[in-house]
Amino acid sequence: MAIQTPAKTISRKLSEERSSSGQNLEEAKKRPLNGKLYMAIDVGTTKVCTLIASVSSDAELEVVGAGVAKSRGMKKGLVVDLGAMQESVRDSIRMASAGLENDLPKACVGVTGTHITSEHNSASINSGHGGQAFSVKEKERVIEQSHPKVSGDRQLLHVIPQSYHVDGIQGIRNPVGLSGKKLVVESHVIIGEAASMDNVVRAVEGADIEVGSMVLEPLASAEAVLTGDEKQMGVVLVDIGGGTTDLAIFSDGVMCNTSVLPVGGFQFTNDLVIAYGIPYHIAEKAKLQGGHAIPEEISMEEWVEVEGSEDRKPYRIRRKELCGTLSDRASELIRLIILKVREAGLETIPPAGIVFTGGGSNLPGLLDLISGFIPGPARIAAPTDLLGLPRELQSPTYSTSVGILMWGIRHPVEQDVYRHHNNDESHQKGRHWLRWLSKFIGSRH
Asked: pTM here?
C-alpha cells in the first residue's frame, strides 16, 4: 500500500515520462534552466521522494527532476537512525538531480509524526486611533500576539488565522480597512517536538542540502488533492502514509484541526507478518499482490503466491484470509478516524465528506469498506494535474510529495530557516520564517 513499485523502478520510469509540455525529464535537464528552481523533499517512513521544479518568469512550471529512494532510519515519522536516513535522502536527491547543471536550491521539507500537536489560541488588540480603520500592521500585530509560549523542547510550526472579530462582530475574514475599537483573532497553532523536527533537518542537511522551510504534511497534501470548494464547504483530509495517518479538517477555506494517528501501511503489513509468520518483505509483496478491504468478495479458492528468497519454496497464503486481516486493520483505522473527528468537536462528517490519499489509500475495496462506517461523500484522491506531472507521480502515494512542492512554490518564505551554532547551547534553531508565514497566511483571508 505504501509503495506500489520498487523505488528504483519508479525513478527509472520517471526519467522516461514526459511532462505536459511534451518534454522528457532527461531532455529538460540537458537544457539550460533559466527559471527559478524549487525543491521538495518528502522524508517518509517507507520512502524518500525528492522533486525539483523550474518556474519561468512567465509562471510556467516544469518538473525537471524526481527521485524516490527506500527510506531507512525512520519509524512513525521519527528519525531513529540518522546516518541511514541521511543516506536515503542523499540517494533520493542524487536521482532527482542527475544531469542538472544548475545549483540546487534550498529545500521545502515535510514534517509529521505523533509528536505533532495542535491547539487553538486567540489574541486581541485595542485600536489606538479612536475607531478608525484597522491597518495591515495592526492585523500582523494581533496575529503575532496569538503565538503561544511553548516550552524549550517544543517548537511552533504553523500559526494559521481562522477568523477575526471586530467589536464583537464575528466571522470576519480580513479586518483590514474595517473600522472598530477592538480586534480579535482566532488562530490554529501547530506545534512539534523540537528535537524530532531538528533530526529531520539534520537528515536533509547531512545530504548537503540546506532546508529553506518546513510544512506540516497534511497541510501540504491538501495543496495537491483538495479543491477550493471542498475546503470552503468543510472536509476531512485523511493521508494514510507508511508509518502514520495524518488528519486535517478544513472549514470556511482554512485548516481548523489536525491530528496524527500512529497507524499506517507498515502496520497493515506487520499484521500479516504476525498472522502468517512470514518475513516483512514477503508480507509487503503479498499485500500489494492480493490485498483487498472486503474479504467477502474473495473466493476461498484463491491463493496469493510470493516467490521466496534463493532456493526457498514460494509462500502461499489463502487470499480470503489475508484480506480478512487487512480488513480488520482498515476497520480499526476508520474507527480511529471517526473518533478523531468527534474529538475535534464535529457531530457529523462535514458536507464535502472525507478525502483519502496517501499510499495506504490504494488498498482495493477501501471505499466500499468506508461506506459501511461513514455516511456521506468519500473519495480517494491523487495529485491534481496542475503541474503537468509525470504519470508515475499521479498517484495517491505521492500526494504529500507533490503537495510539499506546491506549498514551497505558492508560499515563498524566508530562506534562513535553521542556523546551527557551535556554542554552549548545541544546535540552536532560528525560525525567522514563522512570523512571516503567519502574516502571509493571514493576508489570504
From this structure: 0.83
Give, as one character, the DSSP assignment of residue 148: P
Q: Which fold has domain 7-114+196-218+399-410?
A: Nucleotidyltransferase; domain 5 (3.30.420)
Task: Give the percent of the chain with pLDDT over 70.
Answer: 83
CATH of domain 227-380: 3.30.420.40
Q: Distances from the Cα of 351 to the Cαs of 233, 235, 346, in angstroms?
A: 6, 7, 11
CB 40 within 8 A of CB 401: yes
Which helix (H) or strand (E) element contains residue 367?
Answer: helix 366-371
Phi and psi at 232, nearest 5°, equal -70, -45
Residue 300 has pLDDT above 70, yes or no: yes
Of 303, 403, 411, 390, nearest to 355 by C-alpha is 403
Asked if the domains at 117-193+433-443 and 227-380 fall in one CATH topology, the answer is no
φ, ψ at 357 (rounded to 5°): -150, -175
One-letter identity of residue 30: K
Asked if 254 contacts 445 with a C-beta cutoff of 8 angstroms, the reply is yes
Of 444, 382, 383, which Cα lies nearest the Cα of 411? Answer: 444
What is the mean predicted confidence (pLDDT) over 256-280? 94
